[in-house]
Predict the 3D structure of the following.
Amino acid sequence: MLGRNELCPCGSGKKYKRCCLNKDVVVDRAGRKVGTAQKQYSELYTRIYEYSRQDKFKEEYEKAKEMFYIIDDEALNSKFDRFFNTYFIQDHIMESKKVMTVAFYEDNRDKVNTNEVKILRNLFESYVSVYEVKEVLDGKILLKDCLTEREVYTEDVKLLSDFKEGSSMIARIVDVEDTSILIDITISISDAVKDVIVNDIKTLFGQYE
């Protein structure tokens, strides 16, 4: 453990306490906060996933696969399994006109607490979008949703450690209590790809609004 009076590892020549100590404390606190939020999300997601694999949903599962996997390439499709599971649970509209998170809540409303209900609601409202890094701060990063122009802070700085201001990504953000975390797989994309995706989606939205 680095001592307060030792030279800061950043190479500034200053003592650690007069240089990066405060920043590291903020980053460490953010990491613990994100870790707690991810644990709550993961525990609830596991329950929803197990619920979704019941025999009564087998037909819906196959329908969702047909909608999601549009390329007949098993090796390529296997890379998107994590995305598919979340799509099936949160985005696929079943014959009942419900998504899995709603069906799970209706069948388990006496087994979920108030905080879990809030997470379920946020999961239901979440979506995959294109985000741009607007600002990198100590312990948090400001992201802009390129489709809605909405800005959101996330403290998931460890996951986004390789992203710089101006970087773009495809991601899904979910609020757990007062923390915005990124779930599934966050994919870095170039500005050219970002522009193509955003323009195509906005064009489609304009046509079918």
Remarks:
- The chain has a mean pLDDT of 90.
